[in-house]
Inverse folding.
């Protein structure tokens, strides 16, 4: 289970000190094997494998901002702790490796992939089983030479990604409410992360005379932005023993390949129109939500990759690939949100669900005077 959860920990990095389990050995395997395919193919493979998690994580960050369609009155506040689970659609649990246009990666028999013959491989949300065997090649005197083979990484076995958060909301004048999500830089072992988010809710019932006459009914517009910066510095892809004879003295130094890291910068913003109706201690709310996410995923540092010299005598050598994976991944979606809040004195319990391509479910608890 620890190995499977590590794949998701690439995305659920430290948020308010909550971490998923991790296995450094698994990090080396996943990152190191992809990079051996060369920078161009490695970027294609990592994108296909990890992009569903970037989408799910970003849309998860956009959840849980509100639990009613009413903005709090001036001076009212509440503090909430909640978790949002973002679910992957069926089609994003696998990808077809034959359609990636790989140049130095072949099938197990050394044949180029035929885009008309699918080779289905798990994404990070796929089944907990290894992908198909693939062969790695390098150019030698104008000829492609096989330098090894690996199995495409297995999936995590999980179909969702949990995102825990905390939030403080405060009522202002003119039926306006602000919300803040913040975590100072938190470090745990090789993980490091920092979160900042802010949102604004504004009541529009006051501008619609007919609606303003309906007791217990409220309608607001909301906009929010969250930024999570995180990193994992425990990657250690050393020079392999079988490649040492082809490396320089400098490359054989034990500290030469230190400084390898994975960094993530996720930006998520959302806008909603939400209405609610309150019946005593129970409030039901529903609305339409737009969610936009952007994630930069970078694998940084120097990594050893076996290759062939392009000039005579065309012998093997170890090439240093610097910052081999630099990806920018974006996604946006519309969704329909519905939820319930139960308020008992200063305590409140709430849950909501957003119907979208990447659906999300949120549950939380709050305390305050709202």
């Amino acid at each position: 289970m620890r190995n499977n959860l590590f794949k998701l920990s690439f995305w659920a990095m430290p948020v308010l000190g909550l971490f998923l389990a991790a296995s450094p050995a698994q990090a080396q395997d996943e990152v190191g094997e992809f990079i051996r395919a060369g920078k161009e193919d490695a970027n294609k493979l990592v994108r296909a494998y990890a992009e569903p998690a970037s989408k799910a994580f970003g849309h998860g960050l956009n959840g849980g901002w509100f639990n009613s369609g009413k903005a709090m009155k001036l001076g009212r506040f509440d503090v909430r702790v909640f978790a949002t689970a973002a679910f992957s659609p069926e089609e994003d649990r696998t990808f077809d490796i034959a359609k990636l246009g790989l140049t130095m990666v072949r099938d197990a028999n050394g044949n180029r992939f035929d885009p008309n013959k699918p080779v289905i491989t798990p994404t990070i949300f796929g089944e907990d089983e290894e992908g198909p065997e693939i062969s790695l090649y390098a150019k030698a005197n104008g000829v492609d030479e096989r330098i090894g083979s690996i199995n495409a990484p297995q999936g995590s076995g999980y179909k969702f990604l949990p995102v825990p958060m905390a939030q403080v909301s405060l009522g202002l004048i003119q039926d306006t409410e602000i919300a803040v999500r913040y975590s100072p830089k938190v470090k745990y072992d090789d993980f490091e992360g920092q979160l900042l988010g802010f949102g604004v809710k504004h009541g529009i019932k006051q501008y619609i005379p007919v609606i303003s006459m309906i007791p217990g009914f409220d309608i607001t517009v909301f906009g929010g932005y969250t930024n999570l910066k995180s990193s994992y510095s425990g990657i250690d892809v050393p020079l392999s023993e079988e490649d040492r004879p082809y490396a320089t003295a400098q490359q054989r130094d034990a500290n030469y390949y230190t400084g390898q890291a994975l960094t993530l910068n996720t930006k998520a913003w959302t806008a909603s129109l939400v209405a609610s109706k309150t019946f005593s201690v129970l409030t039901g709310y529903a609305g339409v939500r737009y969610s936009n996410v952007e994630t930069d995923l970078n694998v940084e540092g120097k990594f050893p990759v076996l290759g062939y010299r392009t000039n005579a005598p065309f012998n093997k050598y170890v090439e240093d690939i610097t910052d081999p994976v630099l990806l920018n991944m974006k996604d946006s979606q519309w969704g329909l949100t519905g939820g319930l809040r139960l308020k008992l004195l200063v305590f409140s319990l709430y849950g909501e669900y957003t119907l979208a391509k990447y659906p999300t479910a949120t549950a939380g608890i709050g305390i305050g005077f709202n």
